[in-house]
Write a structure and sequence with these properties.
This protein is mainly alpha-helical. Helix content is about 70%, strand content about 0%. Strands 1-2 form a two-stranded antiparallel sheet. A hairpin with a 6-residue loop joins strand 1 and strand 2. Helix 9 packs antiparallel against helix 21 and helix 10 packs across helix 19. The radius of gyration is 24 Å and the shape is globular. The two termini are about 45 Å apart.
C-alpha cells in the first residue's frame, strides 16, 4: 500500500506540472508545425496501401501552410465535428437539468429501493448518472452515502460505491448521453483523416454500453459485498459525523407527479417515432427504405436533444420549476454557458487536428505505424490490450476524457483503420480505459472532492484510505470490462446499430 500511495503521489507531482489541456493542445499544435517543416525538408513520405499513392509531409511553415494556419482557423473550429453535436444535445439536457428532473430521477432511483437490492440499484443508477454529466458527481455521491446510512450500512461504503459507479462506470449507461455525442464527434474528426466521408454515429457503441452498464453493476455489487464491505469496516465513521438528512432527498408529491408525466411524455414521444417508422414508405426511413440508414440514426443527437427538452418542460411546468414557457430559453442558455470551457478547449483541439491532418503527418504516422505493427505479426487482441493499457495510464494524468481522446484519437483511429479496425471499435476500447482509472487519479478534482466528503465521516481519513477503497474498483473494472469486451468481440455481437468491427 505504501508503494501504491508513493506512486500516486509521484503521479500527482508530475501531473501538476502538466499545462492546462488548452495549452497542451497549443503546444502540440506548435510541435506539429515544427515537425512538419523538418520532415518536409527531409522529404519524408510513405506509400498509401489504399491507392498506391505517395503521401508526403507538407510544411506548415511554407507559404501555403501559413495561409492555412491563418486563413482556415475559424473554419477549422466551425467544422469541428463534436462542436454542433455537443451544443445541440446540451440545449436539451440543460432544460431537463435546470427543471430538476435529472436530480429527481437520481434521487427517486435509490430512495425507494428494497434493502436487498440497494447496492445494485445504487451502482446501476450511478453508472447511468453520466447522463447528468459532471453534475452526477456532485449530486449523486453524497446521496449514495446518505442512502446507505439510512438502511443502517456504512456511509463510507455508500460514498465509495457511489464514487466507483459514477466514475469507474462513466462510459457505460442505459441511455444515450452527452458523452456519446462528444466522443463520436471526435472519432469522426479522426476517422476523416483517412476517409473524408466517414461518420461515427453517437449510437455506435450503444448496444455494448447498455449491456456493459448492467454487467458492471453486477461486478461492482459483488465486489462491494465480498471485498469493499470488509475494507470499509476498517474505516468506520466518527460517532459525531454529520451524515446528512435523507428525508430532504425523498421526492415530494409534486416531484413524483412531474416524474410520472415526464415518463409518459417520453413514452409518447418514442411511440410516435416508432409509429412513423413503421410504414415501409416512411420519410423517416433511409433512401433504401432501411432503418439503419434512417435520418433518426444520423441525427440521433437532435432526437435526443428534443427528448430531454420535452421531458424537462413537462416536469418543470408540473413542479413549477419552469413557471412559464418563457423560462425555457434561459434554461437552455445555462447549458450553453456551462459549455464555455469545453468550447475553449475545442478551439485549440480543432487547430491541432487540422494541422496534423493537413500537413500529411497523420497519414505518414498512421501508415508507418500500421506497417510496423503488421510486420511484427501482433494479433489484434494483443494490440487492443496495449492500447487499453496506454490509454488507462494517460487517463491518470489527463483526467478530461474529451481532451485525452482529442489528443490520441487522431493517431490511433487512422492507424487502426489502416489495419482493418473500425473507428467504432477503437472508441469502444477507449471507453474502458477512460473509465477504469478515473477513480484513482489524484489529478481529478472529484477524487479530491470525495476525499473531502470522506473526511466529514472520518476526520483522520487520508489519501491512503481513499486508495485502499478505490483501487480494488479500478482494477476490477479494468480487468472485467476488458474481458467482457473480448467476449463481446469474439461472439461478433454488434457494438451498436449497424456498427462494424472492421474497416
Amino acid at each position: 500500500m505504501r508503494l501504491t500511495i508513493g506512486a500516486l503521489s509521484a503521479i500527482e507531482r508530475v501531473g501538476n506540472k502538466l499545462p492546462h489541456p488548452f495549452w497542451l493542445f497549443v503546444i502540440m499544435a506548435g510541435l506539429v508545425i515544427l515537425a512538419s517543416a523538418a520532415l518536409s525538408a527531409l522529404n519524408v513520405s510513405v506509400v498509401s496501401p489504399a491507392d498506391g499513392e505517395t503521401v508526403s509531409v507538407t510544411s506548415l511553415l511554407s507559404t501555403e501552410g501559413i495561409h492555412f494556419i491563418i486563413g482556415d482557423a475559424i473554419s477549422n473550429f466551425a467544422a469541428f465535428p463534436p462542436l454542433p453535436l455537443i451544443v445541440a444535445v446540451m440545449i436539451g439536457v440543460s432544460v431537463a437539468e435546470q427543471s430538476g428532473l435529472i436530480t429527481a430521477a437520481l434521487r427517486g432511483s435509490v430512495t425507494r429501493v428494497p434493502k436487498k437490492w440497494l447496492t445494485f440499484a445504487v451502482v446501476l443508477t450511478g453508472i447511468s448518472a453520466s447522463v447528468a454529466s459532471d453534475a452526477a458527481y456532485v449530486v449523486y455521491i453524497p446521496l449514495a452515502a446518505m442512502v446507505f446510512k439510512a438502511v443502517g450500512r456504512s456511509p463510507i461504503l455508500g460514498l465509495v460505491v457511489g464514487f466507483g459507479s459514477v466514475s469507474a462506470g462513466y462510459n457505460a449507461a442505459l441511455t444515450i448521453t452527452l458523452t456519446d455525442a462528444l466522443m463520436s464527434g471526435l472519432s469522426t474528426s479522426a476517422a476523416q483523416i483517412i476517409d473524408p466521408g466517414y461518420v461515427v454515429n453517437p449510437l455506435a457503441n450503444f448496444f455494448f454500453t447498455f449491456v456493459s452498464a448492467i454487467f458492471l453493476a453486477i461486478v461492482i455489487t459483488l465486489l462491494t459485498e465480498l471485498v469493499l464491505v470488509k475494507l470499509s469496516g476498517n474505516a468506520r465513521e466518527d460517532e459525531d459525523a454529520e451524515i446528512g438528512d435523507l428525508g430532504s432527498m425523498l421526492l415530494t408529491d409534486s416531484e413524483r407527479k412531474g416524474m410520472r408525466r415526464a415518463g409518459l411524455t417520453l413514452l409518447v414521444y418514442f411511440g410516435l417515432i416508432a409509429a412513423m417508422l413503421a410504414p415501409p414508405a416512411s420519410p423517416l426511413r433511409g433512401e433504401d427504405g432501411g432503418l439503419l440508414s434512417s435520418p433518426l440514426l444520423s441525427g440521433v443527437a437532435f432526437v435526443l436533444a428534443i427528448a430531454f427538452l420535452l421531458v424537462g418542460i413537462v416536469y418543470g411546468r408540473t413542479t413549477g420549476s419552469l413557471p412559464t414557457m418563457a423560462s425555457v430559453p434561459p434554461a437552455m442558455a445555462v447549458g450553453v454557458r456551462e459549455l464555455a470551457p469545453v468550447l475553449v478547449l475545442f478551439f485549440a483541439a480543432a487547430q491541432f487536428i487540422a494541422y496534423f491532418s493537413w500537413s500529411g503527418m497523420a497519414d505518414v504516422i498512421a501508415i508507418s505505424g500500421a506497417n510496423f505493427l503488421e510486420s511484427t505479426g501482433v494479433p489484434p487482441a494483443l494490440l487492443f490490450v496495449g492500447f487499453l493499457v496506454l490509454a488507462a495510464i494517460l487517463n491518470v494524468f489527463i483526467t478530461s476524457g474529451s481532451a485525452q481522446w482529442a489528443l490520441i484519437a487522431p493517431v490511433f483511429i487512422p492507424m487502426f483503420m489502416l489495419m482493418g479496425i473500425s473507428p467504432e471499435t477503437t472508441q469502444a476500447l477507449y471507453r474502458i480505459a477512460d473509465s477504469a482509472t478515473n477513480i484513482i487519479s489524484p489529478m481529478s478534482a472529484y477524487f479530491i472532492m470525495v476525499l473531502g466528503l470522506l473526511q466529514k465521516y472520518r476526520k483522520d481519513a487520508g489519501v491512503g484510505t481513499m486508495i485502499s477503497l478505490t483501487l480494488p474498483i479500478s482494477i476490477t473494472v479494468f480487468v472485467s470490462w476488458t474481458l467482457f469486451f473480448f467476449l463481446w468481440w469474439g461472439l461478433g455481437i454488434p457494438l451498436g446499430p449497424g456498427t462494424p468491427y472492421t474497416y
